[in-house]
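Re: the 448-residue chain
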Amino acid sequence: MAGTIVAEKVETPVRAAAPSKSRKASNSFEIAQAQFDKVAEYLGLDRATRELLRYPFREYHFAIPVRMDDGTVHIFRGFRVQHNDARGPGKGGIRFHPQETIDTVRALSMWMTWKCAVVDIPLGGAKGGVICDPHNLSMREQEQICRGWIRQISQNVGPVSDVPAPDVMTNAQHMLWMLDEFEIIHAGRFPGFITGKPVGMGGSQGRTEATGYGLVFTLREALKELNIRPEATTASVQGFGNVARYAIELYQRLGGRVVAVSCWDQIDQCSYTYRKTSGIVLDELLSVADRFGGLDKSKAAGLGYEQLPGEAWIEQEVDILIPAALENQITGENVGRISPKVRVLAEGANGPTTPEADVKIRERNIWLIPDFLANAGGVTCSYFEQVQSNMNYFWEKDEVLGKLDQKMTAAYYAVSDLARREKLYMRDAAYAIAIGRVAKACRDRGWV
């Protein structure tokens, strides 16, 4: 349990993928702690267990010097936070974001602990990041950041201790550079060290789709419980990155209709919502999207999409809202704009709803599929990839997605059954299961 703890803290406000410029920033780590505190009280956890689980075990802060293409040297700031590994090696993505903060990474590492526990996979929670903007970096510069990140942390991560993965604005190529650097340093082949790798280089079939598909697997079961036919529903989605795209694809295959998508515009540095009441055509939007999930607004307009302000996604008269961007998107300030028609909120992003908004959502009886359940498909498939890499035996795509469906469906009903039996809010029920499992592992190990 020993580790390197560094006191430095970066105080840069988080920029969400599709925020309102007037909305106040929220501290994600404080929100994560408040959510934990509430359920810790419900579970009756002792003080030592609360203190252990309320903070990360270890934090690493480091500098990554990179010689830029113009010959200058730029110092990037990197992080890795390991929240808890009582149930297995740490697991969590590495995000590249110009306004990353250590508190965001702390919160995400905690949420990863609960996410792995709620779907009952033998992993703990971790998260990493680099303060940078890939939009403004060449591929060579991005490669140097990836390799520099590994050089700084290579002795504190690994296939049996902490397994990274892609996150916001990182991808399979970034993971392969990191794997290569790790293997150079440790003089061997360790494909299970990192997940989200390219298929053919130790990556898993189905990993790209996993988070979005996993969300829709849970949404499908929620609609069954609510006796709502998917083909009779409409949805509005915030975000158009990997999670949103595959969630839209599978939801539409079930018969649902997405009428609005909101995403960040890199040129204008603000967000827009693109609406088509007859239903968006996914291939159309993909044809005018960049690799970061932004849309070309003039081309979208030419395809018949109405352009609205970024936060208009939340006020659409739909049955389902899917926030699939970044944290703190549904707040006390905008929750009142949610249409009375909305029946289900499926959180594709991590921490998209603040506690103030949560109260209103519960009061309105909107059926919530909480983030660390709804978006756990990614880490579940990452676990599958880790297993396959370590075995050096890989499954076909249908087998991967079938196993994913089973895991997500079982986890959904475990949470739903507890919520109905104990008359708990779905988020509280998910936390109760996850925190209870992690607390038991800590007690069984003799840590508390």
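Confidence is low (pLDDT under 50) at residues 1-24.
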